[in-house]
Specification:
Rossmann fold, 2 domains, 9 helices, six-stranded mixed β-sheet, alpha/beta
Length: about 280
């Protein structure tokens, strides 16, 4: 086994099995009898779950959340885009590997049915459902050893793939950097989605100046450009606009999301994101 991959797996396993919080990473909202919490009503919530007593007491519409009292169907999806082949602290692809491994170990710990999908315009690699801990290694290895260069994503095809192959309601984690035109509404309607956005801080705020040659990770085309404070600021503004629209889409369709950076403590960030 590759030493770096082994290090990732050991760290993820220690984080999940070495604490009592690994079971909090996979809580699917549902219709069971196991009461979870009361929360503010959001667009799309089932009106049948409105807690009228809490609503009258607070003046704000409140709804009940429940945990499903059965094993969960969990699908981990790695979005294999060429831009994942980048990083300053470490490559985003390596970070995604640890995120997937941590979620996979948590799934196994809770005896859930775990499956995985590596998706791009060039391939789709599916690992079928299992409760075996050996599946964690298969999931991590598929992400870690994937050659993301030359690959890009078509989110419409991703949604079609999941909708055509995923009949049972599932808890789906999408792991990638989420660039481009993104519409996940068709799968959000049928499943519970988490969008885990993998980023490097440098790509959001490139503090560089001078003449550079930029190389596309998809077609390897070269572009010569001069970067200065003004152009870097404009780039950051456009990316912020993109991400703001992305978050609006997630909010509209009740998709939970959060960013994880290459210098973050992965387990702590996952806990923050999944607790919502």
């Amino acid at each position: 086994m590759d030493s770096k991959l082994q290090e990732i797996l050991i760290r993820a396993k220690k984080d999940v099995f070495g604490t009592n919080t690994g079971d909090t990473l996979t809580k699917l909202k549902g219709d069971g009898l196991d009461f979870r919490e009361i929360k503010e009503y959001e667009f799309g919530d089932d009106v049948k779950k409105i807690n009228w007593k809490a609503t009258a007491k607070t003046g704000a519409t409140k709804v009940n959340l429940f945990n499903i009292e059965r094993e969960l169907n969990i699908l981990l999806v790695f979005l294999a885009n060429g831009s994942m082949h980048f990083g300053t602290v470490r490559f985003k692809q390596e970070l995604a590997t640890e995120v997937m491994a941590t979620l996979a170990y948590s799934s196994v710990k809770n005896s859930n049915r775990l499956s995985s999908l590596l998706f791009s315009n060039r391939e789709d690699t599916f690992i079928p459902p299992s409760k075996s801990i050996s599946t964690v290694y298969r999931v991590a290895e598929s992400v870690y050893k994937s050659n993301t260069l030359h690959k890009q994503l078509d989110y419409e095809k991703l949604c079609d793939y999941i909708n055509s192959t995923r009949k049972e309601r599932s808890l789906i984690f999408l792991v990638g950097d989420f660039y481009g035109n993104i519409d996940l509404s068709s799968i959000a309607y049928r499943h519970e989605l988490y969008a885990l956005i993998i980023r490097d801080r440098f790509e959001e705020n490139p503090e560089i100046s001078g003449e550079f040659t930029f190389v596309s990770p998809v077609d390897f085309s070269h572009t010569d450009a001069i970067m200065n404070k003004q152009s870097a600021k404009e780039y950051a503004r456009l990316l912020q606009k993109h991400d703001s629209e992305l978050m609006e889409h997630f909010s509209k369709h009740n998709i939970s999301s959060g960013k994880i950076y290459t210098d973050d403590d992965i387990y702590l960030r996952l806990k923050e994101i999944l607790k919502g």
